[in-house]
Amino acid sequence: MLETGHRGMDFRDRPHACRGRVISTVGNRAELELWGEDGTGRRTTLGRAEVIDDEEIP
Fold first, then answer.
1. Which of 19, 26, 30, 57 is most buried (CB neighbours < 10 A)?
2. Could you read off the pLDDT tens digit of each residue along the chain, which spans 58 residues?
């Protein structure tokens, strides 16, 4: 699952960074907070994702 919402303009000729953090983990699932920042550190894109690791570890 991935959800995003745009809060500002991003321009291709200006610096932009994608960042995120783990909010929670339960078993093989992780919930993530995601965002994009412009060159001043302002969050221009906000989002969240759920990741499921279904790979078996030997």
1. 30
2. 889 998 888 888 999 999 999 999 999 999 999 999 999 999 999 999 999 998 766 6
- Long-range Cβ pairs for the range 27-36 (8 Å, 24+): 28/52, 28/53, 28/54, 29/53, 34/4, 36/10
Distance of CA 26 to the CA centre of its chain: 18
Query: Cα separations (Å) of 9 from 2, 16, 19, 26, 47?
Result: 20, 11, 17, 35, 15
